[in-house]
Request: fold
Amino acid sequence: PTFPVISPMGPRQQVIGGVLTVLAGCAALQIPGRASAPQCERSGIFSHALARTLGACALSLSLLAPPTVELLPNMLAPAATRTLGSHVGGAAYARELASGSGSKVNKDPLSLLRLGLPLQPKEVRDLQAALEDAQDSLTRLLGSNANQALGKATGVLKSSTKTIVKAAPADKADVAQGYLDTITDAVKEAKEALASNQVQPALAAQERALLTLSSLEELIATGYKQPSPPAEFKGQPYLQGRALVELTLKRDGEKFDVDGALFDKLDVQMVVDGYTAPLTAGNFVDLVGRGFYDGMHIQRSDGFVVQTGDPSAEGKGEKHGFTPPGETKERKIPLEVFVKGDKNPIYGSTFDDDGRGGYASVLPFNAYGALGMAREEYDSDSASSQWFWLLFDSDLTPAGKNLLDGRYSCFGYTVKGARLLSDVKEGDVIVSARVVSGFDNLRTVGS
Reply:
């Protein structure tokens, strides 16, 4: 049977309306530290007024646009085990789920983390692109496209194995070869599943291939000689490589309700990246290791960000950041942003300040649950202990085109439990924060 899908706007109006809606949301988005509250109040009046104006424009556009009707077959949501290619409906439904903007914005945190790793040869990037294209096509039930992408991956594996193994540290060549063998087997298994029109086994094999690829790329990156941040930041902690951090949140007297599923607690895992933001990541890992965030409440949750880290909001003094034991001044870290293609981060300046506004960031604020460092609105080097999860998921903001890339430090992504953050509210408690791995990657500038 066919079901009518009513769309209030045509494709062109949808894009324009979407842009206005995104701008409206970004205008209302403020991520300064609480120390700049008076400035926030003044700028907030303008921001909210602008948000209302742009929102009204988007609404007006949607009301003016004539409704259109599309007839799409098989509009029931496909089960994971639905076969591919058995009818047009699967592909049509997949296209309906695709980005309404017509652009492909990479919102996969694992993919973004892979792309942020140094020392990766072109052959590895080609393999990654093919495997990720296959995963995207499988998710959208485009079997023919997935099979074509898997064919490209097979070609790279056959022609470039020696080159890829050579990119790994010499004493880890056997490990690299083992990873490639696992990827080869997984790709073969995915192709066989596709030939039998079995989606679930193909997706499982594809996921195994990508997870193994992550391990391979991380192995290659261990050969990178990461430079220390500039000497002007002597005494500051910084992170070499990456660390895995786990947070557990609870709500007093209530359960979390995430899309109808109830949870007594929320466990969230985050990869913190020192390759791209060594000072920001090192500061965060150091604070987690000190137990600074244990018992701290969520201090802001407005649908765009979930923010915490202000000790004054917990009744612990008047300072809005971390003060090291025995000292009287807050430890501040600079704005730390990294233009894609550069060799080192930019410190203390935004992309705009550096004359490169709109350039792509190595770690963009694309993924739901991206980690960002909060700071005062007009002081780029005022970050200390306040940080946020970004809860924004848009097809209209590719890297470098949103209002955060190059203006705030992105220092990692949530890799487990990101969608659970949708029900986190002010007053929820971080009962524990711990560094699962990578704490031994912590260093001190100048030592």
Observations:
- The two ends are 70 Å apart (CA to CA).
